[in-house]
Amino acid sequence: MPTLTAIVTTLNEQECVSDCLAALAFADEVLVVDSFSTDATVALARARGARVLQHEYLSPAAQKNWAIPQAAGDWILMVDADELVTRELAPEIESILHSPKTCDGYEVKRRNFFLGSEIRYSGWQNDWVLRLFRKDRGRYLERQIHEQVAVDGSVGRLRGRLVHRSYRSLDDYWRKLRRYAEWSAIEARRRGVRVSPVRLLLHPPFRFLKAFLLQGGFADGAPGLVVSLLTAVYAAAKDVRIWEQQRQARAT
């Protein structure tokens, strides 16, 4: 019978790693790949029975590609530390492993929570991520942010949901903003994206209006307003970083 390894990559995730691992108890193996956390993450993971390996972090894709060959299972379930496998999703995954007719990979839709409130719109309503795949058929494309796994074969979709507890506080958001904006700027520059003064002026308000009006952020109430505003802030931070890199390139 095919076996399943759930892989969780961590760095200072003591606030959420225990809940994440508890929801993975159905897996044959739980493997935590840690980037040398300085908090209690490793101790908590071992207390939950996970096998813990530590590896230097270079990028999200590189870390996960290193982790995949370390797994003992035939199938991989990739879960972030701030995510929870729901009670509906776990048995669905088990049924796939027991079925003779399966795809080679599966996407799952996430239920996203921001500051404790579920965000149903605001541009987050179609958040499908490919997280379940055969070990010998999947590998992450090398990207600095929004890493994606490429599956050599057929891909299906699961009915169960994955809970994503994004940004547990505004402090958590601000800590991640700089890192994500930097990574996004690197990817954008690789694609040849350039930022003009007009884009600096118009792109952030456009991103707000798109999230709040076109993508229904108003239906999420005050949390949707905050998410839409922060979407604009993120767009501005990324564009300013690209603009800065352009100036530095011209000066050299």
Tell me the layout of helices and strands:
Blueprint: E1 4-10, H1 17-22, E2 29-34, H2 41-47, E3 51-54, H3 60-67, E4 75-80, E5 83-85, H4 89-98, E6 105-114, E7 117-119, E8 128-134, E9 138-140, E10 149-151, E11 155-166, H5 170-190, H6 197-214, H7 221-251
Parallel strand pairs: 1-2, 1-4, 2-3, 6-11
Antiparallel strand pairs: 4-8, 5-11, 6-7, 6-8, 9-10
Helix pairs in contact: 5-7, 6-7
Query: First CA to last CA: what distance?
Result: 59 Å
CATH topology of the largest domain: Spore Coat Polysaccharide Biosynthesis Protein SpsA, Chain A
Question: Structurally, how many domains make up the residues?
Answer: 2
User: In sequence order, what are the helices and strands, one letter per element?
Assistant: EHEHEHEEHEEEEEEHHH
The major sheet is characterized as: 9 strands, mixed
Estimate the mean pLDDT confidence.
Answer: 93
- Quickly give the CATH architecture of the largest domain: Alpha-Beta Complex
Q: What is the CATH domain class of the largest domain?
A: Alpha Beta
CATH H-tier superfamily of the largest domain: Spore Coat Polysaccharide Biosynthesis Protein SpsA, Chain A
Helix percentage range: 40-55%
Individual helix count? 7
Q: Low-confidence segments, ≥5 residues, pLDDT <50?
A: none
Please tell me how large the radius of gyration is: 19 Å
Approximate shape: globular
Beta-strand content estimate = 25-35%
Structural class: alpha/beta
Beta-strand segment tally: 11
